[in-house]
Amino acid sequence: MKNSAEYKFKLKELPKEQRPREKLIKYGPDVLKNGELMAVILNTGYRGETVLELSHRIIKEYGSKAIVQEKNVGRLIENLGIPLVKACQIIACFELGRRFFKEEPGRFPTIRSP
């Protein structure tokens, strides 16, 4: 159990170079760890967890491969104890990635002139 008197840094209290969004802007997505990328998606923490703590917990408890494959909002909420909005953000993000990855070249015509 965590000590309730333990102080937790909020992202805005961290130096800018340590904040996930600012790191993404300055260095690109390749330098961010999975938990930092998830923190950019989620934006805020929940129930006493900072967004970084929440992001790392989600990846640790669910697994990075399993979370990518999950399509059921209710299961995410139940298994992780996260709110509806955050579950929707996670699922929508990975679904969009799946759809972009599956797109076949030539599926849509390329317009080469006006």
UniProtKB/TrEMBL annotation:
A Pfam match:
UPF0758_N
The protein's name is: UPF0758 domain-containing protein
Q: Which residues form the UPF0758 domain?
A: 12-88
Signal peptide per UniProt: none
Q: Which residues form a coiled coil?
A: none
